[in-house]
Structures are given as structure tokens and as C-alpha cells.
């Protein structure tokens, strides 16, 4: 998404809306590219017309007045406003978020639900290119999940960190506990969302020996309060998009830190615009101490890793972010610090969608 101002500054936003991605127990519904487009075009743009993009509180209040929820639609606008604000003030977005605590985000390479042999091969290539942490997607077959951990540890050695994410996949609390206790024998950094809901997470957390991370159960500040009160998770996955943009993601991160929770910066494998927003949050949030699944942006023809953190063959931005020693560095230019390639945008746009 591109927003233009009457002062000649423009900003970019991105939101990877997925209909099947929502909160635990249907608490937050999925959005799609079509619902985002309709909301932005028919309600949100009209609500924010004439407002100052450097005042995110005012922008969010106007959007909340015309549409409840819809965090992914609002995130696209929010990110574009931060890009404009940074450009017009001559500072990077992380300055607007309070200043940076670190220069970049340590990258977790995500291994999907693939055959074990394929996961091992991909992991070895990623380690050779600098990856120090893996997320193993699990939750479909418990025995496979244990065997995957065992073989992965044997292949990558003890210096690489392994985390698992079952995406609420285990059918019972008992099953989640039984599998995780066996996995943790092979050195487990954390166990992400093994079951649905804060109550289930709390039960699992009491019975295993590694931290539980909440993802589907952590969308808002109020979710963080519930997790804290129940002792359901000691860490969570903080997205730019789930709370509705950088303004609320920063609120969520600050509130969680005050409650003693820590987090990574999660997402849905964004392209370069969304990844830039994630990086600015990741360097500015003090409790964002966990390695994160941010794509190592690949621009066709540019230098960079071929496997490590790579999920796309090309991107919409002109310059990839620097990936060094397993860390993706946050750009320091004004706004998001990126340039969008208009030719690529035209090339990859779906012309059947009316804008
Ligand atoms: Mg997750």
C-alpha cells in the first residue's frame, strides 16, 4: 500500500492477511487481501483523510471509530504513516518507537512440515550460510516431532538453538506435555503454542521444563494481561500486524516487558516493506530478545544467502537488508529506510483486483 500526503511525502505499508490465520478459539477472525482492500478503500482511507500521519494515536482513533478489529487492514495504514512520519522528520522509524537497543534481529530459519530428511538437508545448508536458530513446525504427528528433534540435534550440533511451533496442533494437554518432555531432552529453546487458548498453555507450562511461547493467544495488550495472570506463557510472539500496526505493537511490547514477559518479532513471511517494519520494532523493543523468523530479503540478482532465511525468489524493494553473522540489520535511513521498485510492483501486481 502507498499513501501520499499533500506535502509530497509518500509512505509504504504491507500486510500479509491470511483467512486461516486468527486468534485462539476464534477470538480474532482471519482477514484476506480482499477484506483488507474493501475496508481500506470504503472506510479507513476516508476516516484518515486530512489527518497528520505523524500522530499515530489520532490515526488509530479515527480508524477504530469506523471499523472494529481488522488489525491487518489497519496495520498496512499504520506502517505507511510511520514511513511518512520518519521521512518528513528525517529519522528512522525506530527513533519514533523510542530508539534502538540493538542494530538488528537474530534470524530464526523456519522449517515447515516437511519430511525429516528434507528438513535436515535444508538445515545444514542454512547453518553453512550463518543461521544459528531453527523453528521446527510440529503438531501433526507427535512421534515425528520427537524424531525430528533427535535427528536435527544430531545434525546441527549443540551450538545451534532449536525451537518448536505446533500452531495449536496437539489434540490434548497431556499429549503436548508428553511430546515436549521428550523433545526437551535434545535441548529446546522454547515451545510455541502447543495447544489452543491461555488455559491450555498454562497447564502445559506447569508441566514442562522449557518456556511456553504464546502466538495465536497473543494478539492484544489484553491477551498479554491474561497470559500474565494465568502464568500461561513467559514469552510471546510480538507481530507488527496482530495488534494492528507499529503503534499498538509497541504498546504491547512495552506492557509485556513491564509484566516480565519477553518476545521475538513474529510475522507471516512478509516481503521487504513488512520486514522493514518488523526490523524497526525488533531493534526498538527492549524485551525483543528472542531470535525471530524474519525473511532474509532476496532481491533478484543481488548478493545474499540462497537458503538461510530465504522464502522468496524476488522482492519489491530495491536493496536487500544486510545479513551478517546470523543477524539481519535494520536500515537506518529516514522512515522505513527502503526504496520500493515500481517496475517490480507492476510486474507482480494482480491486475484483476480493482484499486
Ligand atoms: Mg507461531
What descriptive keywords fit this protein?
3-stranded antiparallel beta sheet; globular; 7-stranded parallel beta sheet; binds magnesium ion; single chain; Enolase-like, domain 1; alpha/beta; TIM Barrel; 355 residues; 2 domains
Topology:
Layout: E1 2-4, E2 10-12, H1 33-48, H2 56-66, H3 71-89, H4 93-96, E3 104-106, E4 108-111, H5 116-128, E5 133-137, H6 142-156, E6 161-165, H7 173-183, E7 191-192, H8 198-207, E8 212-214, H9 221-230, E9 235-239, H10 246-258, E10 262-266, H11 272-284, E11 323-324, E12 327-329, H12 342-348
Parallel strand pairs: 4-5, 5-6, 6-7, 7-8, 8-9, 9-10
Antiparallel strand pairs: 1-2, 3-12, 11-12
Helix pairs in contact: 1-2, 1-3, 2-3, 5-6, 6-7, 7-8, 9-10
Give a written overview of the molecule.
With 355 residues, this protein is α/β, with parallel strands linked by helices. The protein folds into two domains: 2-92, Enolase-like, domain 1 (2-Layer Sandwich), CATH 3.30.390.10; 96-329, Alpha-Beta Barrel (TIM Barrel). 40% of the residues lie in helices and 12% in strands. The chain has twelve helices and twelve strands. The chain has helices spanning 33-48, 56-66, 71-89, 93-96, 116-128, 142-156, 173-183, 198-207, 221-230, 246-258, 272-284, 342-348, and strands spanning 2-4, 10-12, 104-106, 108-111, 133-137, 161-165, 191-192, 212-214, 235-239, 262-266, 323-324, 327-329. The strands form three sheets. The chain has a seven-stranded parallel sheet with strand order 4-5-6-7-8-9-10, with helices on one face. A three-stranded antiparallel sheet has the order 3-12-11, covered by helices on one side. A two-stranded antiparallel sheet has the order 1-2. β7 (191-192), α8 and β8 form a beta-alpha-beta unit. Magnesium ion (MG) binds at residues 165, 167, 192-193, 215, 237.
